[in-house]
Amino acid sequence: MDYVTLNNGVRMPQLGYGVYQVAAAETERCVADAIRVGYRSIDTAQAYGNEHGVGDAWRKSGISRDELFLTTKVWIANAGEKKAAASIDASLQALQTDYVDLLLIHQPFGDYYGTYRAMEKAYRDGKVRAIGVSNFYPDRFIDLTTFAEVTPAVNQVETHVFQQQKVAREVLAKHHTQIESWGPFAEGRNQMFTNPVLTEIGAKYGKTVAQTALRFLLQSGVVVIPKSVHVKRMEENFHVFDFTLNEDDMAAIAALDTAESAFFSHYEPETVEWFMSLMR
């Protein structure tokens, strides 16, 4: 396993297991499987409704808490200093732990300034080892960071071979903020799993398209948290540290970048209106 060192000195596994869209009833089994495969970083969120399953799985796994890197996120319905503080305690209870390793603001909507103040206090109180944001585009990232006492350690954003976040990464680098990918496979969009460039490069190394895509992100310095409910896929996604893409391969995959989202844009009025509807 490779690690990245966050801007506050905390070490974070560069490969983790994400539980977005994993049903609550399946979460404990899936996380337990991931831990047995070798994953030591688990990414969940209040909005996923499966923090309890993550907590049950790690508690029953037999591994010590300090061997595991747990991430969760404050949802926009809990935005604001008071609500966020209460939600952090609720997440700790659900995860059955005294602290989380990384806590993120899930979306840049609502009173995220108040949310971040609550997170800074949780950080100072030892309830969190590192804090950051998710889905913050460069403009909102710069805005929040300008007024924050603790610089975000991580920004988790849509990042894959078709959206490599080159501009955002330049901004994050100025603040020594680590980029983390959600959707590293673009959920199969743009015919990713049959992409001829990824297929050809992967074949050279005896690797799948998924492994090739993950390896590209890892070599680009991105933290990844692929999700699967199938053990064989978990194993496949985990075995990406035994080969290295050469410069020509990296350049060929870099050329796949469209610099556009494969899902939605936080700048689109319809998208913002949908997020606002969740706060009513």
Automatic annotation (TrEMBL):
GO terms for molecular function: oxidoreductase activity, acting on the CH-OH group of donors, NAD or NADP as acceptor. Signal peptide: none annotated. Keywords: NADP, Oxidoreductase. Residues 20-257 form the NADP-dependent oxidoreductase domain. The record marks K73 as: Lowers pKa of active site Tyr. It holds the Pfam family Aldo_ket_red. Substrate binds at H106. The active site is at Y48. The keyword Metal-binding does not apply. The keyword Oxidoreductase applies. Belongs to the aldo/keto reductase family. This is Aldo/keto reductase.
